[in-house]
């Protein structure tokens, strides 16, 4: 099962639209996991229309219309891997311990908020993944998203993808 992981799309605040490469990858994926901060419902509508399966949550910048449609935490099993999706996990210091305590039933936690890509494994085996942002690189050199494969209870092929700079 091919997965696309994204977060912090912030359309139209940080970009007028999602990058073309991200949209192409959405259509290739068996499931899309979005860790919040959509900002507008049009982007949610777009992903719901294009993704074969969408697992998504709201973020701190998402208003009532998005919060009515999305949960704060989502859980799903894909390819035999137990995933959770959440927007915020708190400060980087102590993140692995906090998340392992909060989500002891998961194999992988996808999160957002910082716009900083992250890939670590907590004691006990919980893998934490932050795909960064495809529209707002913040303090990072590139805008990013992730892909992975989930099959037979294993997550493999996790890749961080850099997007080309946007043209003004």
TrEMBL record:
InterPro entries to which the protein is assigned, alphabetical: Calcineurin-like_PHP_lpxH, Metallo-depent_PP-like, Phosphodiesterase_MJ0936/Vps29
A Pfam family recorded for this sequence: Metallophos_2
A single GO molecular function term of this UniProt record: hydrolase activity
Entry keyword set: Metal-binding
SUPFAM superfamilies (UniProt xref): Metallo-dependent phosphatases
Cofactor(s) recorded in Swiss-Prot or TrEMBL: a divalent metal cation
EC number: 3.1.4.-
Ranges where the Calcineurin-like phosphoesterase domain occurs: 1-148
Record's signal peptide: none
Highest taxon of source: Bacteria
Protein family: Belongs to the metallophosphoesterase superfamily. YfcE family.
Protein name: Phosphoesterase
